[in-house]
Amino acid sequence: MNELIEFISNNLQIIYIVILSIFVGVEIIKSIPAVLHTPLMSGANALSGVVIVGAILVMLHSNPTDYVALVLGFIAVVLGVLNVVGGFAVTNRMLDMFKKKK
Amino acid sequence: MSIILSIIYLIATVTFIVGLKKLGHPDTAKSGNLIAAGGMGLAIVGTIFVHDLEVPTLIYVLIGVAILVGSIIGGLIAVKVEMTKMPELVSLFNGFGGASAALIGIVEFGNADIKAASASIVSTILSAIIIGAITFSGSLIAWGKLNGSVKSVIKIPQYNIVNNLFIIAIVALGAYVVVGNIDSQILLYLLLVGGLVYGILFVLPIGGADMPVVISLLNSLTGIAAAITGVLYNNMVMLVGGILVGSAGIILTVAMCKAMNRTLASVIFGSFTASGSVEGVNKTLGSIKSTTASDSAIMMNYASNVIIVPGYGLAVAQAQHVIHELEELLTDKGVNVKYAIHPVAGRMPGHMNVLLAESNVEYNMLVEMDDINPQFNNADVVLVVGANDVVNPAAHNDPSSPIYGMPILDVENAKHIIVNKRSMKAGYAGIENELFYNSKTAMLFGDAKATLTDLVAELKNM
């Protein structure tokens, strides 16, 4: 019990952010026309590529002689960029098609 | 962390929220996507350059090369791929994000002093690895299933129980490592492999039409994995970005389930068990009537209102351009043509809209289910192309049917119905469709693209 209280008091800020973010996420998605579900999912997918920031941090903090960390970090950055660039590019391409014909 | 970087992250976070919000409206969607992408770029550049660490040039070079390689490959795939392959592409990219999170977790497990670390740090690292691994292998299976390279839908008895025991075992092992502060590479890799295997077990038994729901769910899981990694680095942009994707993904998943009148649990654990009853039932439904392209063309030529119902079969046959040609021909002849779009037509909600938009179909010709249903009464001809379960009247009038209660397009109210299908094979739900036996229905058998091309040729000759 004491550990739980300690955990909560140490991470209060994070807990607040998580809860508020959950509500923001739910509210902005709530009333989306079905037409946009696929592009939205694709856009959200691109956003989940934010994990790349962590991959870059791994590389910045790693010791140049720690080859295992470097290789894993390198692969993590490549995969993260694939997720980000591919995700946004595909979403953009999908949305290009929604332009109304003149 | 420098205050400048914190401000950059703050700006990026705001662009994510604004971007997602704008993605929800047809007029602003494009700018929303660009805003979010800009914010992401800002966060990446800031992370690389704004810090007070002493970083050797080699590392910068490696990061630069990694970003270049990823951008080129990702950009090329995104530009080259066909629009019908969109869902599996989203799944593939999503899997990469998951893998990235798992790799970060592995490196951090090596870096951290596990023996002395607090339980929250160790559990954060382990959850990033496990969730990342599950989304990676699960997304790859989903990708394989959608492009047809993974076909099996294995169903061993008590499959769900085995699956659930498996995930419980993984969590228990993880808890053991956390509580005991055990710094063991073997257990780490055991957890990683466990996550990978669970991802496969989780997605493998799920049927084709439910794939979009699964992809959406996995997408949401990747967001959670990113958020967990954010906690590890106390990094706000990862935390908020990840949670946003996580919660938005869950809402989207539920919306997709609702459109199919299914619960998330029934998608994951499977509830369509009616496949055994397909044989025999058709005897009581009477006989079907088949028609030819020229007869169908004549019928549509002299109609004043035609509604086209595109479905999965149209997407598979890549017939979105031909159908647009057909619709233009009919419009030129003075026929009033509309498309009826079921929320889950195609392979994903909204997928049909993207496909038809690709072939330049006008946005206002696509009518959503609730708006088009009252108009079927006035339709002279309804042309159903490769759709089945979404037009099955059993959803209205057969309480014993597994799709009973699912919202459908009321095509049976039209004066004439032409159904283009490759064969009499049942749709995804594995049930008969009495619509095909309706006296107003004529079946036009053949591949969607070939048949529609014939129709266009016939119409041109009239």
UniProtKB/TrEMBL annotation, chain A:
InterPro entries: NADP_transhyd_a_C (IPR024605). Residues 15-100 form the NAD(P) transhydrogenase alpha subunit C-terminal domain. Its main location: membrane. GO terms for cellular component: plasma membrane. It catalyses: NAD(+) + NADPH + H(+)(in) = NADH + NADP(+) + H(+)(out). GO terms for biological process: NADPH regeneration. It is found in: Cell inner membrane. The chain crosses the membrane at residues 12-29, 41-61, 67-91. GO terms for molecular function: NADP binding; proton-translocating NAD(P)+ transhydrogenase activity. It is an enzyme of class 7 (translocase). It holds the Pfam family PNTB_4TM. It comes from the Bacteria. It is a multi-pass membrane protein. Keywords: Cell inner membrane, Cell membrane, Membrane, NAD, NADP, Translocase, Transmembrane, Transmembrane helix. Its EC number is 7.1.1.1. The transhydrogenation between NADH and NADP is coupled to respiration and ATP hydrolysis and functions as a proton pump across the membrane. This is proton-translocating NAD(P)(+) transhydrogenase. It comes from Algibacter marinivivus.
From TrEMBL, chain B:
Residues 7-457 form the NADP transhydrogenase beta-like domain. Its EC number is 7.1.1.1. It holds the Pfam family PNTB. The keyword NAD applies. It is a multi-pass membrane protein. InterPro entries: DHS-like_NAD/FAD-binding_dom, NADH_DH_b, PNTB-like. The keyword Transmembrane applies. The chain crosses the membrane at residues 6-24, 31-51, 57-77, 89-107, 119-141, 161-180, 186-206, 213-233, 239-257. Keywords: Cell inner membrane, Cell membrane, Membrane, NAD, NADP, Translocase, Transmembrane, Transmembrane helix. It is found in: Cell inner membrane. GO terms for cellular component: plasma membrane. Its main location: membrane. It catalyses: NAD(+) + NADPH + H(+)(in) = NADH + NADP(+) + H(+)(out). It comes from the Bacteria. One of its GO terms (molecular function) is proton-translocating NAD(P)+ transhydrogenase activity. The transhydrogenation between NADH and NADP is coupled to respiration and ATP hydrolysis and functions as a proton pump across the membrane. Belongs to the PNT beta subunit family. This is NAD(P) transhydrogenase subunit beta.
